[in-house]
Amino acid sequence: MADQSKIRNFSIIAHIDHGKSTLADRILEVTKTVEQRDMKAQLLDSMDLERERGITIKAQAVRVMFDASDGETYQLHLIDTPGHVDFSYEVSRSLAACEGALLVVDASQGVEAQTLANTYLAIDGGLELVPVLNKIDLPGAEPERVAGEVSELLGEDPDDVLRISAKTGMGVREVLDQLVQKVPAPGGDPTAAPRALIFDSEFDQYRGVIAYIRVVDGTFTKGEAIRAMAAGTEAEIDEIGFFNPAMTPTATLGPGEVGYLITGVKDVAMLRVGDTLTTKRGAATEALPGYQDVKPMVFCGLFPIDSDDYPDLRDALEKLTLNDAALSWEPETSEALGFGFRCGFLGLLHMDIVRERLEREYDLELMTTMPSVEFEVELSSREIVPVHNPSDMPDPTKIREIREPYIKASILTPKEFVGTIMELCQDKRGTHAGMQYLSADRVQLEYDLPLAEIVLDFFDQLKSRTRGYASLDYELSGLRASDLVKLDILLSGDPVDALSMVVHRTKAHDVGRVLAEKLKQKIPRQQFDVPIQAAIGSRVVARETVKAYRKDVVAKCYGGDISRKRKLLEKQKKGKARMKQVGRVEVPQEAFLAVLELGDTR
Ligand SMILES: Nc1nc2c(ncn2[C@@H]2O[C@H](COP(=O)(O)OP(=O)(O)OP(=O)(O)O)[C@@H](O)[C@H]2O)c(=O)[nH]1
User: Fold this and answer.
1) What phi, psi does 198 have (nearest 5°)?
2) Domain residues for 83?
3) Does 11 share its domain with 133?
4) Record-annotated residues binding GTP (predicted)?
5) How many whole angstroms from 77 Cα to the centroid of ligand 1?
6) 17 lines ligand 1 (CB under 6 A)
7) Closest residue CA from atom 9 of ligand 1
């Protein structure tokens, strides 16, 4: 068994694009875990989608052997963490599997919102941090300034902060040397009842669920019967091993070691991230801390364009759920769109990824309705009902109170943009909750904001107002009562359920007006006039008309936007326009997402 004192478990944490994957690749090279010629760029990002989007979705864990300059050989486990706020629970579990973390900061950018959020997570988890300035090969690098920011954050001497280039490999060895000195060896009792943390789990078509584990106490051996303490799942270990970076079976994993475990279990929900594994014989009685059921935050309807595809969509969702415990769905029937599913996601990015996988891997053509959050509605009868579909909103006369989820947002920005960001936050019903200077030029703003506003277009607007310089991180802070109303859209006099939305009363008029205008641009001319109305209850607040088709009108001109969220819309333009017959009216997919563009004109 491995010498526990020579094990080091660490993650790399960084803001998106600061070079985490590149540094991980260099570490594999420096330690000769992979030969340079075998090195595929960004080996750790295994899914195609990830590589294409350039973001890390799944945590991975690689064992590397490092001959340090102190003459000792260390067994390092590098645990890669997801880089997006949607997956923050997975990040927290990956960090819980480590004693230390490399904090990578782009020397040409500086500390960003996610750098801060991850740093706080790591500090809360008691991790030892090794800060690193990356990309010093760039002409625009400002290592002195950024070292100052890092030292503000961690209290380090700025001169001790390593300066490296993950691209050229410069300084990477020194990083590992500093790491083995600073980060403590894992504690853990080899004789205690066995416990291991599942920090990630994924479904493999051939092998079933692969659980990524960090052994805390005792040992786990092939053939042994195990139990997941929160889920109650019982199974036998078919294979246990580590990543080198290929899966390498071994006989046992002991305290402090990181690896994988295969049991034949076929559903990731049975071996969930955050759960504690123990052995059936000599079982531990106390689970490791920090288990949480992840809850979906954002919901939307997914409907097949061709209603014959409904069973295929169900199959595809069932398969995806095997691999994604955070994805939830239930059948939904819409008068406008027919049979489909109401799906719940961790956030907008998660939603985008799932939708894309359904279309790409399962070859489905889908209509997506606008994203919504989950409201809590207290009826006059005091009964409390969750509502995550605007069309399910109860009759207003029966409602005592509607509560909506709020977030605490942390925004990092150069100080010149503070004014415009405050304006944006106020427009999004935010309340100011604090402001600090991180350095002479960089400011951290804190706001309490309704999640519903963030879900729509907050992030895009933040980026465009600050030319990409501001960064955002947030966490859920609870529910608050709000004066919300349901806004209905009627086409040719018929309400279209899939276009309903829940908005704040003070904004209902403006939103109704802009939405009607947007829909007018999106809905192509038909053989007859199509009146578009926005209404609160029976009160019409806005009206537009799509005039009947005339011969000289050739095609619709679709507006163009370039942000990530609107790629959703972009994509439609490339292929044939997706249309759905709603009553007498042909409605394109874009119309159902028109609400995402509201912010442009508001
Ligand atoms: N010039 C230079 N570019 C670098 C360096 N390290 C990374 N990059 C580039 O920066 C970009 C982002 O690097 P990644 O390693 O993908 O960043 P990441 O932090 O893993 O990003 P996510 O996985 O999206 O969180 C890539 O284009 C890299 O080639 C460096 O030291 N110097």
Assistant:
1) -85, 115
2) 4-182
3) yes
4) 17-22, 134-137
5) 21
6) yes
7) 19
